[in-house]
Design a protein that fits this description.
2 copies of one chain form a homodimer.
Chain A: H1 9-20, H2 25-35, E1 45-49, H3 55-62, E2 67-72, H4 75-84, E3 90-94, E4 107-113, H5 122-132, E5 133-144, H6 146-149, E6 157-159, E7 165-170, E8 177-183, E9 185-192, H7 195-204, E10 207-213, H8 219-224, E11 237-244
Parallel strand pairs in A: 1-2, 1-4, 2-3, 4-5
Antiparallel strand pairs in A: 5-11, 6-7, 8-9, 10-11
GO molecular function (chains A, B): methyltransferase activity
Keywords (chains A, B): Methyltransferase, Transferase
Pfam family, one (chains A, B): Methyltransf_11
């Protein structure tokens, strides 16, 4: 089974604090960018992989989706989802992403926000997603940017004497594989894949690439979080949209 | 008109020295990787953008191409091409890449090796290429990797006390636009585009992306050039293959 840091008590609380602050990376940068690529959802069925608190599931219903299945590996995250974001058209399921091959429903959109970098076997995941998609179905997801996941060790930014970031320390980029990082807790497992491996996997598993976005902060975001200017030196995430071929 | 550094005497001589050394980046890494993606050329027509000395034009004929047009902005490069690589099936033309819209022939393959990062208007180039391609035609090209073109100033590598490269200093990645670099001579003009801009431009101008390669050295290359191990930290070029949609 995959690592499940979100059920770690310390991680869960720290993550909740981060997300409760409305001026975080997700709300200011990643979410507006990925939502801008959503197709018309009226009457469509959606699968949300790594649905977390369920906010996106509810948003899909508000945008007209017929039904949404949200899966997550974390019992604690789903507890919050069921309590704060219940909806009769949304089904929350406790499931590891590498088990979605067992789902019997079919979907028009498979969506995932910042979760695929936790997945070891990306090609298997893509294979499973394609099987779950109806003809013409869409995959829309975000993941940590390959240069975010690349470095194996060391500080990832070089700073000047005042503590300002000068440049990102890129290393190990072409070394695909497991990485350990500290994010609230030690040894959070992620999987680094160079951008060519990501894109070629999506294509070879039967998708046509529609667009790729490296989101940057707009003026509103920069006013609220001046430190997000560093996103122009090194974007944190990448968003990819593809259609079932 | 575009910058034409290859007709600068000093640049031309230094570049010729570099390419005459058989153990250079192009021969050991870029060329094997891009050649591996060539389609079957038997009976096909090929356009080589930035053909330089014409070596690839001759190779396409050896691989069975019906005819090849090689264009280059440099009179000096074409002089070498006509002298060292003449062939009745190859036509060398002095032409700026932003003028290819004036060509009346049509091609099955448009090929380009490490030249597109000199082009200011990438979308216009792609538009022109698509018009020049027959149905089902292929675009296969390499360019400097967006990591390579990104930094506006400063040393691009951090080295340890022994002079070994530790990590690449990535900055200005999301700032698309002109860059000046020193390569034999000062102020060589290049155009940086983030990978998302590159890929989305290709898609929006009417191509389906087939594959992307970030080439790395194999054992043979590493034996001859141990310094090429740094390509695993930061790949120098990217190769993209697309089909006319």
């Amino acid at each position: 089974m995959s690592q499940n840091v979100y059920d770690n008590d310390l991680f869960f609380e720290k993550y909740r604090e981060l997300r409760n602050n409305q001026d975080n990376y997700n709300t200011l940068i990643e979410q507006p960018a990925i939502k801008a690529l959503l197709p018309d959802l009226k009457g469509k069925t959606v699968l949300d992989l790594g649905c977390g608190y369920g906010n996106n599931c509810i948003d899909f219903i508000k945008k007209g989706a017929l039904s949404v299945v949200g899966i997550d590996i974390s019992h604690k995250m789903l507890e919050v989802a069921r309590k704060e974001n219940p909806n009769e058209l949304v089904e929350y399921m406790l499931m590891d992403m590498n088990k979605i091959g067992s789902l019997t429903q079919r979907f028009d959109l498979v969506f995932s926000s910042l979760a695929f970098h936790y997945v070891k076997d990306f090609k298997k995941l893509l294979y499973d997603i394609r099987v779950l998609l109806n003809d013409g179905g869409i995959l829309l997801y975000s993941q940590e940017h390959p240069y975010t996941t690349a470095p194996k060790v060391g500080p990832t930014w070089t700073k000047d004497e005042y503590g300002n970031k000068v440049h990102y320390n890129l290393s190990d980029y072409m070394h695909s594989g497991k990485r350990y990082s500290k994010w609230f807790i030690d040894n959070v497992e992620k999987y680094h894949r160079p951008i060519s491996e990501v894109i070629n996997s999506i294509i070879s598993e039967g998708f046509i690439i529609n667009s790729i976005v490296e989101p940057v902060p707009d003026k509103y975001a920069l006013d609220r979080r001046p430190d997000f200017k560093d996103e122009f030196d090194k974007t944190t995430c990448i968003i990819i949209k593809g259609t079932k071929a």
